Amino acid sequence: MRRAELEQLFHPLSLEQSLHLLDSLTWFPQPGPDGSARIADYVNTRADGASVDTATIDSVLERIDESAAPDDDPALGRWADIRNAKILYSLKYDLKTFLLPDPWFTFMNMGWQEVGAPDPDLREWLPGGQDVWRYSANLYDMVASRMPLAGRDVLEVGSGRGGGAGFVVRKHLPSSYTTVEQSENNVEFARAVQPSEIDFRVGDAESMAVDDDSIDAVINIESAHCYPNPKRFFAEVARVLRPGGRLLFADEWWTEQVGELTDAIAAAGLTIVTHEDLTAGIIEALRRMPAITGPLVAAQEGAQRRVYERFFGERVLRDSLESYTSKRFVFTLVVAELA
């Protein structure tokens, strides 16, 4: 969605206020009769600008209702009580392309770092100025290393701005690398800044325009928690994989629902080879991040500096860290194979 369309959809909220509204709907759902009041409070405590009232929240939610395409397959799990589950994350990432427009802002996933180990040196495979993403790239490297990818056909689903795709192509040397990403803005951004040999496609993880039996490895990092119907995604993974192909999956998940996640993967016909808890390494990376994000934020100017201060200091290093240390979320790795 273009900037003018987003501004019209969320008027009179600023883009930053709009992002926090979407966070309140996806990270911390606010059902019930007082949901709009709690959303307004969430936005007002996390973003600068004029105070937001419940009437404004209600008007924005009505416009989102009107813009959302109907889905005849009801959302599952936590998404069942959330209005317009299909569109919310797409809007969130479309917004970020305007709030965080810099070409170095290429990764959108949590980072991972082995507890007690020295920082990874991945600069050989990260473009100049992108060492700030050393931990995010380290997560991709650890997950991608669970299967030899050199000379293989790889599909990444939920590729964001393409930082992980570019890194895997440079370091792991697949024969082909295709991505499916719902946000058109993310795809346009990735096409502009990532290696030209990557085939970035706009698409739906739950219904992919990818041929049957055509892929050796599906990479899915910190994306499936956004899908209203992850069972449909895992069925799609089984459809596109060749025999012996693998799903390389790492994502944050609701601690009490991890068993449902692995059951859904197995139900799709995939055999789980590895299932590991990565949460300690995610927390370790978050605790090390200020050493590299601090100087980066300090180098920004004007209003954009405040945006990055909030993004890194509050949204990532405070809110995300609390989600893991409180054990609300667990970050889980699953490697599964198609027989």
Automatic annotation (TrEMBL):
Which organism's genome codes for this protein?
Jatrophihabitans lederbergiae
UniProt-listed CDD domains: AdoMet_MTases (cd02440)
Q: What is its EC number?
A: 2.1.1.-
The biological process GO terms on file are:
methylation
Could you list this entry's UniProt keywords, alphabetically sorted: Methyltransferase, Transferase
Keyword Transferase assigned to the entry: answer is yes
What name does UniProt use for this protein? Class I SAM-dependent methyltransferase
The enzyme's main class, written as a single word, is transferase
| Pfam families for the chain | Methyltransf_11
GO molecular function list: methyltransferase activity
